[in-house]
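Hey, quick one: can you model this chain's 3D structure?
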Amino acid sequence: MKFEESILTKTIYYVDASILATIDADFNFIEGAGWYELYQYNYDQSFWRLDRFDKLQEQFFVKLPFTDDWANYNSQEMEIELLRKTRGATTTPCVWQECGKPSLMGLAFCERHAYFEMGIRK
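Sure thing. Here's the predicted structure for all 122 residues.
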């Protein structure tokens, strides 16, 4: 992979083979804490948090706005937005307790109810 092709332009990604290859090629491991690892991007010196692998959970790679208490950074809103963008929305209303927000493609729930009530991450 050429360096120009591996420049990350979003603030959150689902972890797949290409993201892992980019991390390996273009990031420096800083430290680990709990369920996360902290990396620094060689391109712009920004800091990113990687979820440690868990076969039962979706892994995220998140650009951090700060490094203080980085392991406790709450990325839930970013994860919910990524879920919405990835799945897409329909015109069918969410069925959760008469929510009424647009449901996600392939689901009967909006992104918030899919995420918080159903545990859906992707």
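One thing worth noting: The CA atoms of residues 97 and 116 lie 14 Å apart.
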